[in-house]
């Protein structure tokens, strides 16, 4: 079991678009195992490579009875329905706020062996797939909060014991996840 340190809000790697994976090799399989071990140990529903300081387009997930990993994922809307729900992040520990997400999505990508994978998610799984794909694009769920909630979130982050004083960067209009 390899549990790695998680990068916290304020680390520039969390705001950088991760690079496409082209080599489905031993190094990638090790990264997927490290992501899994760290996510499970920290009690997360998902964990993206940038949260470990690695600029690669891969994440693991384990929520709502579903578990796996996706490499170079793309998200597709299953319909226009949305959901409001509590959301947190291992890179913003011990805090969470209501965030609007799409209720039903389809994620397509590859597994660590280069085989195609498709995951259809609703509710919590859909939220998780969107959240982790956002990480790969340098977007945090804070960017998707309504203005009032975001102001509250930033106050609570600044007061958190883990916050290092780096002025938070918020993307006021995050790009769409969907192609």
TrEMBL record:
UniProt entry keywords in alphabetical sequence = Hydrolase, Iron, Metal-binding, Protein biosynthesis
Alphabetized Gene3D superfamilies for the sequence: Peptide deformylase
One Pfam family matching this protein: Pep_deformylase
Task: Cite the cofactor comment.
Answer: Binds 1 Fe(2+) ion.
What InterPro entries does the record point to? Peptide_deformylase, Peptide_deformylase_sf
Q: Which molecular function term from Gene Ontology is one that the record holds? A: metal ion binding
List membrane-spanning regions.
none
What does the entry give for GO biological process?
A: translation
**Reaction catalysed?**
N-terminal N-formyl-L-methionyl-[peptide] + H2O = N-terminal L-methionyl-[peptide] + formate
Q: Which residues bind Fe cation?
A: 89, 131, 135
- List its EC numbers: 3.5.1.88
SUPFAM superfamilies in alphabetical order: Peptide deformylase
Give the signal peptide range. none
Which cofactor does the UniProt annotation name?
Answer: Fe(2+)
Q: Give the annotated active site.
A: 132
Q: Which family does it belong to?
A: Belongs to the polypeptide deformylase family.
Q: Which NCBIfam families match?
A: pept_deformyl, PRK00150.1-3
Q: What does this protein do?
A: Removes the formyl group from the N-terminal Met of newly synthesized proteins. Requires at least a dipeptide for an efficient rate of reaction. N-terminal L-methionine is a prerequisite for activity but the enzyme has broad specificity at other positions.
The identity of this protein, by name, is Peptide deformylase
What's the source species for this entry? Actinopolyspora biskrensis
């Amino acid at each position: 079991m390899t549990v790695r340190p998680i990068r916290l809000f304020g680390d520039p790697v969390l705001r950088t678009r991760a690079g496409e994976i082209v080599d489905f090799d031993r190094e990638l399989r090790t990264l997927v195992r490290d992501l899994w071990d760290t996510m499970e140990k920290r009690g997360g529903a998902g964990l993206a490579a940038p949260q470990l300081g690695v600029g690669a387009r891969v994440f693991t997930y384990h929520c709502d009875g579903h578990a796996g990993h996706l490499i170079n994922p793309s998200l597709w809307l299953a319909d226009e329905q949305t959901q409001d729900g509590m959301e947190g992040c291992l890179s913003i520990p011990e805090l969470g706020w209501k965030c609007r997400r799409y209720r039903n999505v389809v994620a397509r990508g590859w597994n660590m062996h280069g085989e195609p994978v498709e995951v259809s998610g609703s509710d919590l799984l859909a939220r998780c797939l969107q959240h982790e794909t956002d990480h790969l694009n340098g977007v945090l769920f804070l960017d998707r909060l309504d203005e009032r909630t975001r102001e509250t979130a930033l106050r609570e982050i600044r007061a958190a014991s883990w916050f290092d004083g780096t002025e938070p960067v918020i993307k006021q209009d995050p790009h769409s996840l969907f192609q």
